Every structure is written in C-alpha cells, then in structure tokens.
Amino acid sequence: MASYDFDLITIGGGSGGVRASRMSAAHGARVALIESGPLGGTCVNVGCIPKKLFSYAAHLASDIDDARGFGWSVDGARFDWKTLLANKDREITRLNGVYARVLQDVGVKVIAGRARVLDPHTVAVGDQTLIAAHLLIATGGRAVKPDIAGADLGITSDQAFHLDALPRRAIVVGGGYIAVEFASIFNGLGVSTTLLHRGPQLLRGFDPDLGRVLAEELAQHGITLVLEQTPAGLTREEDGLRLMLASGRSIDTDLVMFATGRLPNVAGLGLEEAGVKLAKNGAIQVDDFYCSSVPSIHAIGDVIDRVQLTPVALAEGMALARTLFGNDPARLDYSNIPTAVFSHPNIGSVGLTEAQAREKHGPVDIYRTRFRPLKATLSGSAERVFMKLVVARDSGRVLGAHMVGAEAGEVIQGLAVALNCGATKAQFDATLGIHPTTAEEFVTLRERDPA
User: Fold this and answer.
1) How far apart (Å, rounded) are the C-alpha atoms in residues 116 and 220?
2) Which regions of 54-150 does DSSP assign to beta strands (E)?
3) Which of 134, 221, 298, 435 is catalytic?
4) Which residue among 12, 112, 356, 375 is the one 20 to 30 A from 140 at the CA level?
5) Is 339-443 a domain of CATH 3.30.390.30?
6) Residue 399's closest CA among 444, 349, 436?
7) C-alpha span between 386 and 52 (Å, rounded)
C-alpha cells in the first residue's frame, strides 16, 4: 500500500476548491489546499462579489433620480470612488477570512504558494514535495485580451476593481455578461461609456430576445453601442487612448476594458507532462465524475470549461467529495441552471432558449410581455420590463423563463424551482400572483404568440 501525506491535495482556493476540500475533510479525508493568492478565487476577489457591490453602487444613481418622483429632495448627492473601493476591499478581506476559518474548522491544511504537478500523486510547492492519493485541480480561469497591437494598454475586469480613479470616458470591448455588467457599472457611476461588440447582438448563448431588449435598454440609459465592429489596435495619445477598429474607424477614450473571454488557468501546472488530456483551449477533460485521463487527478469549476458559474463549481465540488470519500458516486445535472446578469437592467434566465426548445421538443408556445413597471409611473424612468415563457406545446411544460428588469435574478431563482419540478403552464396560470409586483406577470401571461 502506497504511503500518502494526504488523501486529497487541492490546487486552487476558489469556491469550488474550497467546497470540495471542506466536504472531503468532513467525510474524514486528510486534505491539503494549495493557493498562491487570497482565498475565494475569482468570485470573491475579482468576480461575483465585488462586481455585485459595484453594481449596487452604480444603480443608486438611477435610484436617486427616481426618488424625486416620490417627493424626495436629493440635491447635493455625490459619489466618491475611493470610499467605494475601501469599503469593497474591507468586505473582500472579511470573506477571505471566512474561507480560511471554514477550512481550518474541518482540519484542511492550507499551504500558500504556487503548485506544480510532478506525477499522478505528487505536487511540488515551494521547497515542499507532497504526495496524495488524489489530486484536485480547481484553478479556475483567467481573463484574456485580444491579440491586437497595444492590447497591454487596456485592462481586464481584474484591474477594473482596483482603478486609482474613474475615467471620464471608457470603452468596454465584448458582448457577454461581463461586458454588459461593466458597461452598466461605468455608465451608472457617471463615466461616458461605449460598448463595442464584434457581433450583431449581445449575450450570445442566452435567448436572443434578452440580448435585443437589453441593447435597447442600455442605449436608453445613455450607453453608446457599437456593434459588428472589431478592435484592431490601441495606442496612447496626448489626451488619452485611441482604439482603432478593423473598419478603419477610431474611438478616443481614457480607458479600454477588454471583456473578450476567459481561458482555463492551467499554465505551468505540469498537467500534460503528468498525462492529463487537455482540450484545445486548455480545459481539463473530465468524465461525469470529474476524473481526468489520469485516474488519480480530478478537476472541477471553470478549469473544465463546462458552466462557468460559482454555484456550479460548488455543486461539482460537493459531488466530487461524495464520490471520492462518501461512498456515494454523484453526477451533476446541468439542466435548468438559473443565471443572472447584473446589467442595468438585470437579466434572469432559466431553462431552454426558444431555439433550444424547438430543437429538443418540437412545437412550442411562446408567451412574452414588455411593460412599464409600477415604480416608473411616478419616477418617470423609461426603463421597461420584459418577460418570456417557453412552453412545450404537447405537454404544456414550461421549458424556459427569461426576464429583463429590476431584480430579475431574484425573480428567476424562484421560477427555477418550478422548472426543476416540471411545472406546466396550467400550474403557472393556477398560481395567484402577489399584487402589485412585477413578478406576478409570470403567472398572469395569457396571450401566446401567433403560431
């Protein structure tokens, strides 16, 4: 019998790695976790948490404007970027400590440093060599910049959380959820913002109606949209930066943020030398139980490039712990994963898009509405809510629910439970709404699109 220092060594202290380590230790495994940066990974440090805090800050500008319609005098309101940064940093530091404590409480040994896999059971970190029965790679992803001249003059979302000062003008390059969220944040905080996207529509992979409606709402909020244009180069000029486009056009700005994709974070880990098969983009190829081509090496989270969401990484981590140490092989069901985009307005989505539903289920019925919410009747806001249900025609089962509007994520979370229970449109119709709310529209939709 081989002698191991640990039953599991986890490389990566993000949400997935911490959850897998903690649950494995709770099953009685001896666990070490290696992390070169602060605990919490992308989500806690340069992702979900600070981004949502920034989103709250940016949305308060419109809330202040709305307040006037309700009789509030808000003259003299001003925003201080440094205060937001300091308060954000304090909260992130608190969360880093929470992650450290939950690992300590279950006996996980946390090792600070950069790890390298030497063989299927051995990891080097600093001057230490550690051996474990199982290795878990949970190193997440990293933001990438386009391969254009001067790209180093631009930033990614990682740096956006630590800017010394807000720019007067900003260009966000990209059309995915990170791009539209940061365009909304910059715009809400008073930055003259341009959103540049190479495609004709925002939010590829979501139901197309969401991208179409969001584009209209972003423009209404004052964001300049430049679609079907590709960046070709970035230069520094006397009064700022100049972004050259492939079309020959140029745009002057003070900051360019690239939100053009992320790649699995596997560089320098030694995985291929250890026999681990990687996809073309570097993603670790795993089976349904998160085992790589090397039986003792496992991977979860963004580094496997399945669904890049924190709750998915958490669920994968729990499933792996059950499989390895709970005597309970567990697979994750990737259907009906709800998600939210914290743009202004928010987007919430669960289930199938209209196109996916037609491909998988044949004929479908579509119910959609777009309306002015009650709050806007006094605030004067031009923002409108959009809702859509995708329903299987033969069974009446609701296959997808999609929304653009305030607190869309909060609304869709509840509908995700209904979709996972196989709820039908008739059951939606039989559910009484909470009046007056925006969410009640999901149970009062009666008119379907013409077939």
Assistant:
1) 49
2) 109-112, 115-119, 122-125, 128-137, 141-143
3) 435
4) 356
5) yes
6) 349
7) 22
What's the first-to-final CA gap in the chain, in angstroms?
A: 66
The answer to whether residue 1 scores a pLDDT higher than 80 is no
Share above pLDDT 70 across residues of the chain, in percent, rounded to a whole number: 100
Task: Residue 141: name the closest of 287, 42, 10, 20 by CA.
Answer: 42
Query: Mind listing the pLDDT tens digit for each residue in 201-258?
Result: 999 999 999 999 999 999 999 999 999 999 999 999 999 999 999 999 999 999 999 9
CB 400 within 8 A of CB 354: yes
CATH topology of domain 6-143+263-325: FAD/NAD(P)-binding domain (3.50.50)
d(CA 356, CA 352): 6
> Helix H segments across 136-279?
157-160, 177-188, 208-220
- State the pLDDT at residue 451: 73
If we measure between CA atoms, which residue out of 259, 8, 274 comes closest to residue 146?
A: 259
User: How far apart, in whole angstroms, are the C-alpha atoms of residue 95 and residue 45?
Assistant: 9
* All structural domains of the chain with their residue ranges: 6-143+263-325, 151-260, 339-443
| Tokens matching residue 139 | 């190193």
The reply to whether domains 6-143+263-325 and 151-260 share a CATH topology is yes
- Crossing angle (nearest 10°) for helices 354-361 and 208-220: 170
Helix (H, G, I), strand (E, B) or coil at 404: strand
* pLDDT (average), residues 126-155: 97
Which residue reads 């140029």 in tokens? 250
CA 224 distance to own-chain centroid: 23
301 within 8 A of 14, measured Cβ to Cβ: yes
Residue 435 falls in the annotated catalytic set: yes
- Over residues 280-308, the mean pLDDT reads 98
**Which pair of tokens denotes residue 358?**
């037609």
Architecture, CATH, for domain 151-260: 3-Layer(bba) Sandwich (3.50)
